[in-house]
Write a sequence for this structure.
């Protein structure tokens, strides 16, 4: 039999009363939780820390280079010709005026003979016109010649004199050309390179030898461009032999190349050496070391570095409450296993080095100092 309307109304009333009792019970439970008791305290989290200690951020720069002469010249003939004599080889030490090589002088000798003959002819011509001119001067004084004849004799004399001067200059030039067939050393030094051989025909100004002059010595290094940006102006290098570190000298930067080597991104730097030992000969490989700009800072393990926004930061603990806060820092440079900071910390502050993933601002920690700190 289907329930009538009265039965259905009674059921609805009973369901409504049960719903009210359920809501009242839930409100009672929630009301019991909303008391004035403080929430339970969280336990301090154990993290590793170090005490910030100031350190010198000056980076030791170590480079490999070689010893070279301060002054190095390329030697060449001033005239072209065939080399008929070569008297020195690479490694030879020469003195000023030493004959290094000689060209075949036949052409220059012929030119000199011709120039000398021209001088003799010009001298004879001058002697002849000079006598004629002196005679015209005498006749002009006595009144036995005309002004026109006197002027002609004077002009002939001047022309002959100019011709003699010209031929003498040509003779001098021919003598120089003959002298240029001999290549002489102009300073004491060591022959470091040879670019021509006996029997070879060379042009004037073609490089024949390279000579490294005696005297001042430089150490040459190819330095990474980034290192130069942080190098002090008065950077001092200690340069030692690669084969014997006990032999060395001190030097300072003398010259920095204005351009970068596009092959390896380095810049050539020349170090002026002082009191160079005799063992540091030309071409010897050396190792140079020097420190970039000094400055105080702090070194922390790389695990201590976190990020706030787009900037680096570290977690720092308050010395009393042990509550941590996020501190922005300024990175000087990155090294293997550590980060050098030049700003953002104070001496003896506790820096979290491990466990930072469990931290938030104000979280209390139980610091555990890292071994070796």
């Amino acid at each position: 039999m289907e329930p009538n309307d009265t039965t259905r109304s009674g059921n609805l009333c009973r369901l409504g009363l049960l719903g009210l009792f359920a809501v009242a019970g839930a409100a009672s439970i929630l009301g019991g939780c909303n008391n004035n008791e403080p929430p339970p305290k969280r336990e301090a989290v154990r993290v590793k820390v170090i005490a910030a200690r100031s350190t010198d951020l000056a980076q030791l720069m170590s480079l490999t280079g070689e010893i070279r002469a301060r002054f190095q010249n390329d030697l060449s003939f001033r005239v072209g010709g065939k080399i008929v004599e070569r008297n020195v080889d690479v490694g030879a030490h020469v003195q000023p005026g030493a004959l290094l090589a000689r060209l075949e002088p036949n052409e220059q000798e012929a030119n000199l003979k011709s120039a000398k003959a021209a001088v003799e002819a010009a001298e004879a011509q001058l002697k002849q016109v000079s006598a004629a001119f002196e005679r015209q001067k005498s006749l002009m004084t006595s009144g036995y010649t005309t002004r026109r004849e006197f002027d002609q004799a004077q002009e002939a004399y001047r022309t002959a004199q100019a011709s003699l001067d010209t031929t003498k200059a040509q003779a001098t030039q021919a003598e120089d050309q003959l002298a240029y067939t001999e290549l002489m050393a102009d300073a004491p030094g060591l022959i470091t390179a040879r670019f021509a051989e006996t029997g070879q025909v060379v042009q004037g100004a073609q490089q024949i030898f390279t000579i490294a002059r005696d005297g001042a010595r430089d150490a040459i290094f190819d330095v990474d461009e980034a290192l130069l940006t942080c190098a002090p102006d008065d950077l001092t290098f200690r340069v030692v032999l690669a084969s014997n570190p006990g032999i060395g000298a001190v030097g300072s930067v003398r010259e920095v190349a204005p351009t970068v080597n596009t092959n390896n991104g380095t810049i050539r730097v020349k170090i002026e050496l002082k009191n160079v030992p005799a063992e540091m000969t030309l071409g010897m490989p050396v190792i140079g070391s020097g420190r970039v700009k000094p400055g105080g800072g702090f070194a922390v393990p790389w695990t201590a570095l976190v990020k706030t926004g787009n900037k680096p930061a570290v977690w720092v603990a308050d010395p009393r409450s042990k509550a941590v806060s996020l501190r922005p820092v300024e990175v000087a440079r990155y090294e293997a296993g550590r980060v050098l900071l030049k700003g953002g910390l104070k001496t003896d502050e506790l820096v979290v080095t491990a466990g930072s993933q469990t931290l938030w601002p104000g979280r209390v920690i139980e610091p555990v100092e890292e071994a070796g700190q």
